[in-house]
Design a protein that fits this description.
Helix 8 packs parallel to helix 9. The strands form two sheets. Strands 3-2-1-4-5 form a five-stranded mixed beta sheet, sandwiched between helices. Strands 8-7-6-9-10 form a five-stranded mixed beta sheet, with helices on both faces. It contains ten helices and ten strands. The longest helix has 27 residues. 53% of the residues are buried. Strand 7 and strand 8 form a beta hairpin. The chain is globular, with a radius of gyration of 20 Å. It has 337 residues and is of the alpha/beta class. The structure holds 5'-O-[(R)-(carboxyoxy)(hydroxy)phosphoryl]adenosine. 5'-O-[(R)-(carboxyoxy)(hydroxy)phosphoryl]adenosine binds next to helix 5 and helix 6.
């Protein structure tokens, strides 16, 4: 079964064809990151406009790269939540028109479910149940993936997402947007251990996380150094920062594994590309005897293939959208209609 999948929830327009939820036939993607870098972050209105400009051409490209024509498409899948509302709307509107024109089912996909499903593309043997540490620019959560479409959030950030925190810290250090990758590269130049950064605990919710204190702490540290004219060891700060984020995430993921008895863990989302977090997860899972799947870097960030993968399982579960499908800025992944 060939699914034509659309992703436009933030600043990547992506169209992909995925066969039977596991094989990527094509993955056309256009990132707007360079454009938003001029402003230090995503400008929602520009993102929407750029999606409109790109989506039709990328659809042609995705079909051509897959060596298929429109007649070979069996269903259309689309990210309908969560994300920048104007941006998500472009993908939803376009996907609706394609599904209508081709006379094929339209399958709505939750963006974070898609990130988790990216692992199905990389690891053919992976099947639920497993735990997922889903860490992206807009979301940070530990998810119990009981089945392909049955998921429960065990813990989540109470404020900022891990990626947002990386982006803000990078900005303070004068690094370009999106800051996660440059922060990661900078951190690799240092052993760290120079700056003391906070680790948060949410009273009464041991799997929940908080990143706003860490973010403020880095901002204050950099501003204080600037005001006093003191030099800042940016590489050490980047390394210590990555460690602080990892210390929020990895022990909680391991605790969730202990509490649920799950033996398999996957990472998902843009921040899952981080080298410190990947290393810490590998070490912790090895110690605990848990099988860990880390998606290849290409599948960590937003892409259309992950929506095609999850779309296939949503389709098998009977999920269909009518042509009045709406886009949503927020939606819990366990709430998907
Ligand atoms: O999953 P994603 O592409 O988009 C969302 O669904 O949000 O995640 C983007 C986020 C950005 O905040 C970016 O800075 C971060 O992932 N990111 C990283 C790394 N690569 C991307 N954060 C830390 N280390 C990285 N290597």
């Amino acid at each position: 079964m060939n699914i034509l999948a659309f992703e436009s929830s933030c600043d990547e327009t992506a169209v992909s064809v995925v066969k039977d939820g596991r094989t990527v036939l094509s993955d056309a993607i256009l990132s707007q990151a360079d454009m938003h870098a001029l402003y230090g972050g995503v400008v929602p209105e520009i993102a929407s406009r750029k999606h409109v400009e790109a989506i039709a051409g990328l659809t042609d490209q995705a079909l051509a790269d897959a060596n298929l024509t429109k007649k070979d498409i069996d269903a259309v899948a689309v990210t309908y939540a969560p994300g920048l509302i104007g941006a998500v709307l472009v993908g939803v509107s376009f996907a609706k028109s394609v599904a209508y024109a081709l006379g094929v089912p339209l399958v709505p996909v939750h963006h974070i479910r898609g990130h988790i499903a990216a692992n199905y593309l990389a690891f053919p043997e992976l099947k639920p149940p497993f735990l997922a540490l889903a860490i992206s620019g807009g979301n940070t959560m530990i998810v119990d993936v009981k089945d392909y479409t049955d998921m429960e959030i065990l813990g989540a950030t109470r404020d900022d997402a891990a990626g947002e925190c990386f982006d803000k810290a990078a900005r303070v250090l004068g690094l370009p947007y999106p800051g996660g990758k440059p922060m990661d590269l900078l951190a690799q130049q240092s052993q760290g251990g120079k700056y003391t950064l906070p680790r948060a605990r949410v009273e009464g919710a041991e799997l929940d996380m908080s990143f706003s204190g860490l973010k403020t702490s880095v901002v204050n540290l950099a501003h204080n150094a600037e005001q006093k004219g003191e030099p800042l060891d940016a590489a050490a700060l980047a390394r210590d920062f990555a460690q602080a984020v990892s210390d929020e995430l990895v022990p909680r993921a391991m605790l969730a594994a202990q509490q649920t008895g799950r033996q398999v863990m996957v990472a998902a989302g843009g921040v899952a590309a981080n080298s410190v977090i990947r290393g810490d997860l590998e070490e912790a899972c090895q110690k605990a005897g848990i099988r860990l799947y880390l998606p290849p870097l290409k599948l960590c960030g937003d892409n259309g293939a992950m929506i095609g993968a999850q779309g296939y399982y949503e389709y098998l579960a009977g999920k269909r959208a009518a042509l009045d499908l709406n886009a949503y800025a927020t939606m819990e992944l366990s709430e998907q209609e």
